Amino acid sequence: MVSRSGRRAAAMLTMAVAASGAALRELPTLDCTDGRVIDIEVKKGGAVIEDLLEFDTRAYHFEGSDAAVPGHTIKMHPGTTCTLRVTNNLQGVACNGQHSNDFHCPDTHTLHTHGLHVSPTEDNIDTHIEPNGGTHDYVYHMPSDHLMGTHWYHAHHHGSTAMQVGSGMAGILLVEPAADYELPASLQELYSDDDVHRVPPMMFFHHQFTNFGNDQTIFFWLSQQELLSQTENNVPMNEVWLDTQLDDFYTVNGQYNPRVTVTQNVATLLRMVHGGGSKHITLTVNSAACSLKLIARDGVFHSLPYLDLETIHFQSGTRADVAILCTQTGVFSVSSSSTVGLQPSTINGHDQSDVFEVEVVALPANGVARAMPTSEAPLPSYLSSLMNDDVGVGGQEVSVIDFTGGLRGGWGINGVPFPGFGAGEYVETFCVDTTYEMQIGNQGFPLNTQGPGMSMIPRHPYHQHVNHFQIIDGGDPSGSVMRDGEWRDVAPTLDS
Fold first, then answer.
1. Which phi and psi angles does 110 have, rounded to 5°?
2. 288's torsion region: left (phi>0), alpha (psi -120 to 50) or beta?
3. Cβ neighbours for 62, distance < 8 A, ≥ 6 positions apart
4. Model confidence over 199-250: pLDDT tens digits?
């Protein structure tokens, strides 16, 4: 994958969750604007996935709420300031700034956002909110020209990220349109909160309660219980199984196989966030009567023509805004498969026949059909295309970023394991207001020499904090996984 990057502005609580086939629920939403401070408490809570599982977990609690798994949806607005005040009331041992590349510090917390174009001192992952009452204010000064978009936030303390995110510490983050930002009419209807056909934003969340495979050195194969066992854990899961056949599955907004309702012949927007840990999903709507168009990915609108999709691919942290239009009534399953479409790696893929359902209801006699959007949304100057830019200063500068390894503590860049913050070792140093071209690959490591080769190699996606990057050559002619010219902050990586 080749991309370019630039910035031109430089106690036990219970949560009940609906059962299979229930209507998709709206996650509680907090509007963070006009200097509002939202209090988020990190502590032990309890989750119930109805008919499947009950378990204790580390969880977010918002403004005195019960445990929220996943977290509440947070809305931010351009030109305003939002403060997320995180207080860590987990009971544990302080981490004291440790940032080594192994499992450690299960009760220290860091909050990270995807998609916000703010200072890295604001979205700062080198913060350590220690247990037993530690607190930190994350203050986000939203630029006045910040693009509206679908994003997310999650726990991100190095050494416990996989465990805490797998526990449910993640949520949807929506940036609302700026006061002077105008969407074309065909997009305004889709994105309006007042649209009678509106579908709640969707958080896909991976629950893994069994080890995948036999090699216990591969961290992304480990169950949540196994991850907890890697450190001194004082929040045992105490899981109670209601259905032992389902121990590796996705939920949507905390529900197993919920139902999304759309109206026949009315284009409807699905705003989707993949909050899974290490797996990717490839979704298919199992009906020839439904068509899909990709409107935005990772919170940035696409250029015309909008892509027709047969499958919707999500890496960890990927977001997609997709318009769906169905011409026949009925109930259709939406499944995930590790073998359809372009797959960066089948070993990271997920198979599930019933991620959610789409129910198509008849258009009322006095109803109005709505076609797929055909207008393009304007982008702010900091997302101007870099496709034809001169690269670097005084000539072309190419940075090769190659993910290697994959064993516990073994992931590295260009063969060098992560040394920890403050170690003085950097893969590259970039300058502001400069365009760079990056060649991003993944050597990975083979897991099955008798398997299909490349597809049996785990792929670590590339994620860039604060700044999006633009795909120049993603190696995907279909554009369903990566589209040349699109802006991303998470992207899959293929062979080096």
1. -140, 140
2. alpha
3. 28, 30, 38, 39, 40, 41, 68, 71, 72
4. 999 999 998 876 655 444 455 556 777 777 767 788 888 888 887 777 788 9
From the CB of residue 131, how many other CB atoms can be counted at a distance below 10 Å?
Answer: 21
Q: Which residue has the tokens 């996989």?
A: 162
Q: Torsion-angle region of residue 263: left (phi > 0), alpha (psi -120 to 50) or beta?
A: beta
pLDDT band at 11 (very low <50, low <70, confident <90, very high): very low
